[in-house]
Amino acid sequence: MLDDPLFILAAVASLGVLVILMIGIGGFAKGGEFNRKHANRLMRYRIIAQAAAVIIIVVFAYLRSKG
User: Fold this and answer.
1) Which end of the chain has fewer CB atoms within 10 angstroms, the N or the C?
2) Average pLDDT in the 22-49 region?
3) How far is CA 32 from the centre of its chain?
4) What is the pTM assigned to this prediction?
């Protein structure tokens, strides 16, 4: 499974979501100018990255179930 490129892509996409989420939570916790300027943009990026990750995972699961 670790040599499957779609699995690696799904893992990278999931890690990307995690990184965006952590930056957003850190900015929210700190507050200030960074949070005011970038909070909504980070949320949009997270939603887009999360949707892409879910689609990749579903495609991976579908292709794996086919054999």
Assistant:
1) C
2) 93
3) 25
4) 0.84
